[in-house]
């Protein structure tokens, strides 16, 4: 059973840190981490990483765009290396707020302003709900799964749309394909589609990424993965859920093994 809920459904007002602390349900990011290394995935459940400056920036951008989340606090210091500033930053984080350097504070506000000039992105974020938490059980294994879409636009007569906001170095659609594969976005899309379908939000939701660059002029693109990418991601998700069920049932979380591994160089090294 999930640590947070005891019934399937979409829930509002679950704090971000509570949602991510659930050790007995599998998220999309957890599924990707599990396929990479079950042992590392299990370790991270008990030892979550400390927040980093770039995480603060990403959270800040999300908070402004989605209109929810932690308060942004401008720290009037360009360098955070002194003990005094580190103590201030730690105190801000302890209050559940997001500390930002002056340049980053100004940047995220400029990004929010720029996004509003993109007609499709602005329309998607005009009316809807941010960061609802969905929990459901997998039909095949009975495992609890979870999802937390960035934004669900208010549904009219058409399909339900799921929106995920990404900050990135390049929002160029030609570059997004590689990023999607590298970071497992092709798994994220069907995870959210299938989760919200299981929770009754339509039979065929659409999933789009709103990607925005982190440097001026903060360009925006709206991207939908094609059917082949989604199908591959759905296959990988199935593997992850089945692996999760096995690990939970046996309480074994495999590492890289105890044997000597004989490896070669990648193919391009021999060209």
Q: Care to describe what's here?
A:
With 271 residues, this protein is of the alpha/beta class. The chain has a single domain (9-253), classed as Lambda Exonuclease, Chain A (Alpha-Beta Complex). Helices cover 44% and strands 16% of the residues. The chain has helices at residues 16-20, 28-36, 38-46, 53-66, 83-94, 102-115, 119-124, 173-183, 185-198, 227-250, and strands spanning 9-11, 72-74, 98-100, 128-130, 133-137, 144-147, 151-153, 161-168, 206-213, 220-223. It has a three-stranded antiparallel sheet, covered by helices on one side. It has a three-stranded mixed sheet with strand order 8-9-10. A two-stranded parallel ribbon has the order 2-3. Strand 9 and strand 10 (220-223) form a beta hairpin. The radius of gyration is 20 Å and the shape is globular. The chain starts with 8 loop residues before the first strand and ends in a 21-residue tail after the last helix. The model has no long low-confidence stretch (mean pLDDT 92).
The major sheet is characterized as:
3 strands, antiparallel
Q: Low-confidence spans: pLDDT under 50, at least 5 residues? A: none
Helix/sheet category: alpha/beta
CATH architecture: Alpha-Beta Complex
Spatial arrangement of strands, main beta sheet: 1-5-6
The helix fraction, in percent, is: 40-55%
Shape label: globular
**What is the CATH C-level name?**
Alpha Beta
Rg, Cα atoms, Å: 20 Å
Number of domains: 1
Count the DSSP helices: 10
Might you state the CATH topology name? Lambda Exonuclease, Chain A
- Between the first and last Cα atoms, what is the distance in angstroms? 52 Å
The fraction of residues assigned to DSSP E strands is 15-25%
Order of helices and strands: EHHHHEHEHHEEEEEHHEEH
What is the total tally of β strands?
A: 10
Residue-averaged pLDDT, rounded? Answer: 92
